[in-house]
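ok posting inputs for the L-homoserine job
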Amino acid sequence: MRTRPLKVALLGCGVVGSEVTRIMTTHADDLAARIGAPVELAGIAVRRPDKVREGVPAELITTDATALVKRGDIDVVIEVIGGIEPARKLITTAFEHGASVVSANKALVAADGAALHAAAEEHGADLYYEAAVAGAIPLVRPLRESLAGDKVNRVLGIVNGTTNFILDKMDTSGAGYSEALDEATALGYAEADPTADVEGFDAAAKAAILAGIAFHTRVTIDDVHREGITEVTAADIASAKRMGCTVKLLAICERAAHGESVTARVHPAMIPLTHPLASVREAYNAVFVESDAAGQLMFYGPGAGGSPTASAVLGDLVAVCRNKLSEATGPGESAYTQLPVSPMGEVVTRYHISLDVADKPGVLAQVAMVFAEHGVSIDTVRQQGKDGEASLVVVTHRAADAALSSTVEALRKLDTVRGVASIMRVEGE
Ligand code: NDP
Ligand code: HSE
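and the output
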């Protein structure tokens, strides 16, 4: 074993960074044996140097992250600050100074992954980011390496722990949305700005990363159709229950049937209680990968939190250090297919639509006619009337999203339709 240590700069020592520090310190001997050389924490950049950080060597703390990555003796930079800047600048500076990078930053990779990969390649460095998608679950490496010889057609799953935690609490304990979000934040699952979680940005970033790797094309967060959970109500969850379903925030990346484009979307959806994703509780994540040769694979595990995320970071650290020692680099970006990303309107799925209508003769026929005129076939209708008004719940067969949108637009114009209470996609059947 080499005795000269590989030097690691840690950028950020919050929920994830503090666990990375703990594992690097307590498992130093095992890490050295697995890598073939000791790894030494050479500096830890933070914003607030005076904050009490249990188990973190105070002499390593600095507020000058730029000076740390420019030192020249750093072999690997671990970036767990988050956000776009200064993370982007620090990572590119690290490459320029000869370091490889391990990051958990899905927002940055989904916004600018192509440029970061190009910078890594230019400087003969590695860029690894297993922790950026689904916490502890190995997903980036299986897609990038284990399935590199197969053709992936679909990636579908729950990739945000915070929103799964909130929806699970609302469904099972009747907790309120804000109460559940506060709990997820206290447990270290939420992003620094939890809007990223509840508005679906975090899951959209992960969907972009997964789609890019799975389909060997470039997908950025701007290509992903995004809806969060802020408009999911207790009534939606109750309605899902009546249908034998539950509500989950799903990320779905698909190769189009003709194979010449892909789609990527994040939105709440009803899924049957019999579907394996329905039993994914709390901040756990689960992702199905469907490919030509392997068939259907399911990845499941803790999707957020300091310790699970640090596990993924440390796995990357070991891989990157091994590459350093053998003077090699791991796989970079693979975007040779250059498949375009189709708009949401072309996505085909099923819908659950709740309408408030006048309870009088002919209304149901009128509503059904609007669906027929737009080529959307109805699967089931449930009506409940009270005091001259009725609630009408329509579940459709599979239809294009564009056709469903124009159906809803036309329904809103009917005098007898008082309002469209909710529209939710139905997946997993
Ligand atoms: P935290 O907010 O807990 O920690 C961020 C850390 O970065 C803090 O130590 C903070 O310093 C430091 N920091 C912020 N700005 C700067 C700056 N300008 N210069 C130097 N240091 C800075 O975030 P998390 O640990 O939760 O997340 C980190 C990354 O990991 C994010 O990209 C996130 O998306 C990702 N991630 C998080 C998961 C989780 O479950 N939390 C799961 C998977 C990925 P200070 O301590 O002084 O405030
Ligand atoms: N905020 C993210 C989540 C952290 O809740 O899934 C893990 O990426």
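notes: The domain at 142-302 is CATH 3.30.360.10 (Dihydrodipicolinate Reductase; domain 2). Residues 117 and 333 are 6 Å apart (CA to CA).
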